[in-house]
Specification:
This protein is α+β, with helices and mostly antiparallel strands. About 25% of the residues lie in helices and about 30% in strands. It folds into two domains: about 90 residues, Beta Barrel (OB fold (Dihydrolipoamide Acetyltransferase, E2P)); about 50 residues, no CATH class. The strands form three sheets. It has a five-stranded antiparallel β-sheet, with no helix packed on it. A hairpin with a 5-residue loop joins β5 and β6.
């Protein structure tokens, strides 16, 4: 009781002590949404577990590479958690059940290859005539496919790099 009264008078009662550590990632446990780290800053080397997310949820899960650097926030009242990553092994958004992000450049090339092949077949079909009658086929396809533009299928607000 005396301790609380002194802290109240000093203005330090329930005051949090927040520390930011740079650390190396020793291991990652995706199921528990945490990683084990060893600090490289501060007066002493500390090894402890730090949360990767605010809770066990399917929001955004950033999975750091083992042996990479992270910054960890540690406080009196919270479990330590990672706030910044140097190297990321994997990023999972909203559970990840839709699979990986589309590689827009490769997808655009594949779609354009299909569109070009369909246009080639339309041209051949429209030019076809029966040899016995020497008359073009009665059904003519009047339009060809327009090549897909990358901007039509790409969201510039979320980008990603190599696998």
């Amino acid at each position: 009781m005396l301790k609380e009264a002194i802290q109240e008078l000093a203005g330090t009662r329930n005051q949090d002590e927040v520390k930011l550590y740079q650390a190396i990632v020793n291991s990652v446990d995706i199921e528990k949404r945490n990683c084990n780290v060893t600090t490289v800053t501060g007066n002493a080397t500390l090894t402890f577990d730090a949360m990767l997310t605010a809770g066990v949820s399917d929001g955004i899960i950033v999975i750091p590479q083992v042996d990479s650097f992270v910054f960890v926030l540690k406080s009196k009242y919270t479990i330590p958690f990672v706030v910044l990553y140097s190297d990321i092994e994997k990023l999972v958004l909203k559970g990840g059940e839709f699979g990986g992000f589309v590689k827009v450049i490769e997808l655009t090339q594949k779609i354009n290859n299909l569109e070009n092949k369909v246009n080639e077949l339309i041209t051949i079909f429209n030019a076809h005539s029966h040899s016995a009658l020497n008359v073009p086929t009665s059904s003519i396809i009047s339009s060809q496919l327009i090549p897909t533009e990358r901007a039509e299928i790409e969201n510039q607000n979320i980008t990603h790099g190599a696998d």
